[in-house]
Amino acid sequence: MKDCIGIINLDEREDNIRELISNNIISAMPIAGRYKIVDFILSNLTNSGIECIGIFTKKKSYSLLNHLSNGRPWDLHRKKDGLKVFNYSDYNPVYDDIHSFIENIEFIKFSRKEYIIIAPSYMICNINYKEALEEHKKSSNDITVIYKKINDSDRFLYCEELVVDPNNRVKEIKNISKSNYEINLNMEMYIMKTSLFINIVRDSIMSGLYKKVKNYIKDNLNLLNVGIYEFKGYLTCINSVNSYFNSNKDLLDMKVSREVFYNGRPIYTKQKDEAPVYYSKKSKINNSIIANGSYIEGNLENCILGRKVIIKEGALIKNSILMDNVVVEKNAIINNTIVTSKSIIKENEIINESNNNLKIL
């Protein structure tokens, strides 16, 4: 994979998760207690042997930049290649990534990599790109799109599906509508030659017809040979409040957790020097993920806790996500709730939502 460059394009729409992330961005959101969403795609790329990675993000990405630091957790702190972050463009990649790419095209050109993999951060999985790249090299495809067959389209609202012909060529890319039949989910991961990517960016600038690489590919399927590569593992997409909540809950499933975290391709993250979790003799924990630095005296069931969370005696937390530095006072009850960072739940407070409702504090 030394002949491949990785591009993480943070062009995910945040309309349906804005209530939760406020001024943050999706890739910098916490997941599974101690991780950030961006850790998954970064780890996938580095585990596949890609040593040159560029992240194209928007302005006001302080939380993300602080997390990435110099790329050391992913072995990307290098004099040559390594991790580069581009967040100073005047263009928001949600609406226009072409100008961000053309302004930094030297990074891509001078990488001298023959192939390029473009991927978002909000598709959560553990994928080996080596296999996908080898399949692409063997094929006659101009572009290979990675996809997954799914039956539960409700879990992937606001995403796209691929319509494929008998020769495994993509003939249409369209938005997902609610359906009960199996569809080919577009994972928005594209493999192509670097020279083709540069030509797509330049053609888009010269013609003025396209502001996003995805739109160029979608509208030129008749001119490009766009093939497919099937991913068969666990996949979730975080692009709404409900999908964020459900994706975290998925990781409480031991089968999913083993595939994502313990399959020989680890997920790396920035290390923080925190004390181990303290459990009092009165605490009761059932099927929960708890990050370091937390202090637990109460009861937890099907919960995910970030770092430095304090649960006082008598508190009961069920089916909930508590982000970093949350304090839950004595005898409080929380159910089906996302509690954002640094919140304080008062003594004897009750937030007991039904299974069909989800509350954000």
Structure description:
The protein is built from ten helices and 28 strands. The chain is of the alpha/beta class and 361 residues long. Strands 1, 4, 5, 6, 8, 9, 10, 11 and 12 form a nine-stranded mixed beta sheet that branches. Strands 14-17-20-23-26 form a five-stranded parallel beta sheet, with no helix packed on it. It has a five-stranded parallel beta sheet with strand order 15-18-21-24-27, with no helix packed on it. Strand 9 (160-164) and strand 10 (170-175) form a beta hairpin. The longest helix is centred in the middle third of the chain and has 14 residues, at 194-207. The termini are far apart. The model has no long low-confidence stretch (mean pLDDT 90).
Helix tally equals 10
Which shape, going by the Cα principal axes?
globular
Fraction in helix: 10-25%
Strand content: 25-35%
Beta strands, count = 28
Mean pLDDT: 90
Largest sheet: 9 strands, mixed
From the N-terminal CA to the C-terminal CA, the straight-line distance is: 44 Å
Low-pLDDT windows of residues: none
Short synopsis of the structure:
The protein is of the alpha/beta class and 361 residues long. It has helices at residues 18-21, 38-47, 62-68, 98-103, 105-109, 129-138, 194-207, 213-219, 241-250, 254-261, and strands at 4-9, 30-31, 35-36, 52-56, 82-86, 115-119, 123-124, 143-150, 160-164, 170-175, 183-193, 226-230, 236-237, 278-279, 284-286, 289-290, 295-296, 299-301, 304-305, 310-311, 316-318, 321-322, 327-328, 333-335, 337-339, 344-345, 350-352, 359-360.
